Amino acid sequence: MHQQQRSAGVSEAELVRIAIKTMGLDELSPFDPQQKIIEYRLNNAATQPLVAMNLRRFADETASESPAPGGGSIAAYVGALAAALGTMVANLSSHKKGWDERWAYFSEYAEQGQQLKDALLTMVDADTAAFNGIMDAMRLPKTSPDETKIRKIAIEIATKAAIETPFKVMQLAAATMPLLRKMASEGNPNSVSDIGVGALCARTAVWAAYLNVQINTTGLADRNFAEQKLKEGYALLQQAQTDEAEILNIVAAVMAK
User: Fold this and answer.
1) The predicted structure's pLDDT at residue 101
2) pLDDT digits 0-9 by tens, 47-65
3) Lower Cβ count inside 10 Å, N or C end of the chain?
4) pLDDT at 173
């Protein structure tokens, strides 16, 4: 990709598509990597059942009476969309006519964006898994003092995991802001409105994930852990709101030119 002066910040799916075309795997019949590549078949449905869904099915699953996926998984997905928009503009900028000498510069940002997008997509299923962990702990028997003690410990451990997961989403979504800021000020101006949408998504993801941190800390026995996560999370939220406002100001200035 670098030798052809094309952005290396493309998704794994796009790299697979290029490989299929290069190797002629689809010349005789359609080649579906999700079905033909064994690693995909093993991983998608087993380890990332939500991310493996199409958009409509994911929305339908969210809308069902099941409590998960819920706000935490949605927060992660919105964050992934923020990273995706920043990556898109980086890729468009690396291929913009007349900007040939800057293709490597923007390609590096596109690669960063792909990494953030993929990490946030992983958190979509991780959040639902964390919620299910609490449910599993709460279903443990409590017919004796020992069972009650074990159940209480299991719930505490699972609740901490359900706090750490949206907190990680906050960190990852917040980490998209520098990419979005850079693309707003230096990226392809024709796509600056997309960066504005990305900033809105990033701040929403941070705030939405913080709500999940908050609600999961309410029943935690370890108050020091809870208060520390709330404090750190609030700082991330405040910074995200500042970043969003600054990026939107840059977007407005570019659009006004």
Assistant:
1) 87
2) 789 999 999 999 999 999 9
3) C
4) 98
Tell me what the mean pLDDT of segment 228-234 comes to. 98
Which pLDDT belongs to residue 30? 53
- Residues in contact with 180: Cβ distance below 8 Å, sequence separation at least 6, in sequence order: 82, 85, 86, 195, 198, 199, 202, 243, 247
In angstroms, the CA 150 to CA 148 distance is 6
Instruction: Give 16-33 pLDDT, tens digit per residue.
Output: 454 445 444 445 445 344
With beta carbons less than 8 A apart as the criterion, state whether 80 and 121 touch. yes
Distance CA 230, CA 103 (A): 41
| Long-range pairs of 240-245 with CB within 8 A, sequence gap ≥ 24 | 240/170, 240/173, 240/174, 240/177, 240/202, 240/203, 240/206, 240/207, 241/203, 241/207, 243/174, 243/177, 243/180, 243/181, 243/199, 243/202, 243/203, 244/177, 244/199, 244/200, 244/202, 244/203
Are 233 and 210 a contacting pair, CB within 8 Å? yes
Residue type, 106: F
**Domains of the chain listed by start with CATH number:** 12-55+73-256 (1.20.120.680)
Per-residue pLDDT for 127 more than 50?
Answer: yes
DSSP letters of 71-133?
HHHHHHHHHHHHHHHHHHHHHHHHT-TT-GGGHHHHHHHHHHHHHHHHHHHHHHHHHHHHHHH
Rg, C-alpha atoms of the chain: 21
pTM: 0.83
Task: Give CA–CA dist 92/73, Å, rounded.
Answer: 29
In the block, tokens 């990273």 appear at 83
